[in-house]
Amino acid sequence: MKIALHSLKKNTKVALFSDHVDFDCNFHDEDRFHHDLRLERKRTARSGRSFLLMTIDISCLKNGNGHNEKILNRLKSRIHDLTRETDIKGWYTNHTVIGIIFTEVGDDDTTSVASTISERVKTNLIHIVDTDYFDEIGISLQWFPNGKGTFEIDHLETSKVFYPDIPINNNQKSLSLIIKRGMDISGSLVCFILFSPLFLIIPILIKLTSKGPILFKQERLGLLGQKFSFLKFRTMETGCSESSHQEYIKNLISDTHDCGVGTNGVYKMQEDSRITKIGHFLRKSSLDELPQFINVLKGEMSLVGPRPPIPYECEHYKIWHMRRIDEVKPGITGLWQVKGRSSTSFNEMVRLDLKYTKEWSLWMDIKILFKTPWAVIKGKGAY
Description:
By secondary structure, this protein is an alpha/beta fold. It is built from 13 helices and 9 strands.
């Protein structure tokens, strides 16, 4: 939430603080702060206990010679006094945005906690910063996760503030990522050429066997929850309700024994009356996924990566499930597809996705791509 400071403008004398105290040992640089933020996300995924992230944009205080050192020392001193030793303080963005991670805040009312903290910060800032700058200082407080113990899909965009380390990781692997993107483009173009006859035959078969469009478009979630139109050859009758699939997915994800309730541990519905006759063949052979090469060329997906989830699927995610869409682009194939596809449980699928994000390398992508045709031929777990 954005906090307006103009209402606090008044003639106030600057409080006296020691300008010579060095708090840098407890005030981390950007790299260290991002590293600690990443660790807090992982701790929350394990414990389920939320933390509160506050950012204070002080870019307006920067002049040609940099920040006023006395003001910065006063800010650091007051932040040190207002926070606990276990809270994490530092630069969210170097010399522009200060970050504070309030850890182990507890299960109290989140609105009340955030309001109390924000009022304390505002009350103390007025004694430090010239009131002329108050309108330009931006303070933001956000909980991780947005919902208590679950993933709230409406807050995906704002959740990006918790992942500043993702662009840094991408920069550190910039050459590898450039090569990966080159593999995506060249591989998609080659597949378009190889399967060009199927791009003519399959649409004809779809039109001859059922009424409706050739392509099925569905909203999916990519890296950090970015929405995009996911493309497949249509395998279902048009106008079908998604309620049965939504209930199926809800039961599958909420099951605590690594197999879906009434699903025999199968991620996809085995007997779905909505599927057309040609649709069964297209799904079994994975030919329905050929249009996804368009998503790859557009940069929304990669050849290799976790499968992009449906928004209503993420509404039932636990905190640790979120990580499968936090760090890499979704892909057409991945570890899940070459290790059993839909015959694995949902939790096992997520674990395979997390294994991929943790151990990703170009060589891993190449091995998965070479294993994919055999997985498709075997048809294990394809429905």
